[in-house]
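Why run this: before we spend reagent on co-expression, it is cheaper to look at a predicted model of the complex and decide which construct boundaries make sense. The entries below are exactly what would go into the expression plan.
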Amino acid sequence: MKKSSPKFILNYCIFLIALGITGCGEKTSEKTPAPKPPLKAESHSPAPLAEATQEPVVVTEKTRKTYQWYCAQCHGIQGKGDGINAKFLTVPPRNHTKAKYLETRTDEQFFEAIKFGGLSVGRAPCMPAWGNTLSDSTIHELVRYIRELCQCEAL
Amino acid sequence: MKSFLYILMGGWFLCSPILSHASLIQEKECSECHRVSKDDTEKSGPDLFYSGNKFQASWLKQYLQNPITIRSAGSTGDPDFLKGIQANSQKHPAVSKKDAEQITKELMALTLYDLPEEVNLLEPLTKGLKAKIKYQFERTFSCISCHQSLNLAGKVRGGISGPSLVNAGNRLQARWAASWLKSPKTFSNKSRMPVYKMEDEERLQLTQFLMTMKNENKR
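The model came back. Tokens follow.
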């Protein structure tokens, strides 16, 4: 049997990689499936639950402003998933006012999604990691704020 | 002592023509919308006090004569920024070719400090590497969620809350883009972009990728 040439194998690999690359801005006619949960990076530390349990996290005016400054670009002023970037993304930003999905997620999953990005919790790569921008306590407050917006808690 | 005075006077005579032109930025009231000095109060338009680090002179000259939209949703500091494209449709005023040349000269003199010249910044990317960085641009760092950019087929894709990167390769200096990715707070505290911690190699490759985005590559 004829052996496959290295060039053919290389081309085949490139083809496979190309299939896998579909960015947030690439509009495709088919609905993009949710990406599979990636392996967690070693640097990921578990969400500091202790902090959350020691003192109740309070949503302040500063929390709302932080949401408006960073999150509302995609998630919208009222958190309805209709920010100015929304229509340019393949995977629509999460509507934070809808409880149906959000109540199936834990606060820790919210925390990880914000801190390490969407891919870290098996969701869309459009959501960047905010862990170098926002402190853990700010992220905990944002989690609380999202719970306020959806008027829901984890089931 | 006398010779020292002559030197001083000579210096003044030499500098006076420069000084007499140095006010076009003021004359055109650029500082109404832009910070032209780091000590200025917050303004709605993009900061210009590090223009000499950030922009390519040829692009500035062209832009000032024929302004195009870089931020479709307006500047991040605009009160209506989050309301979308229509809310911030104010167009940048255009100036004559002569004025554009003078303003460019003045803007290019505004620098923060000498940015580091990083190794291999402008080496061409191989096709494979370009595909890898495109992947990072879209999926690892999610840049495309907020920035319009060119995909590998030369099509414009991406969000609009950040400045368009479609012509980044003609607009920005590579050194500045690399420095911004490393330490955006050095330049601005009002950015809505996440801060990234990337390996130097990764950061420089991403910069190289940005510099490949040019209007002439659009299809």
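Helices of chain A lie at 6-20, 49-54, 61-75, 99-102, 107-116, 136-150. Confidence is low (pLDDT under 50) at residues 15-21, 28-43 of chain A. Bring this page to Monday's planning discussion.
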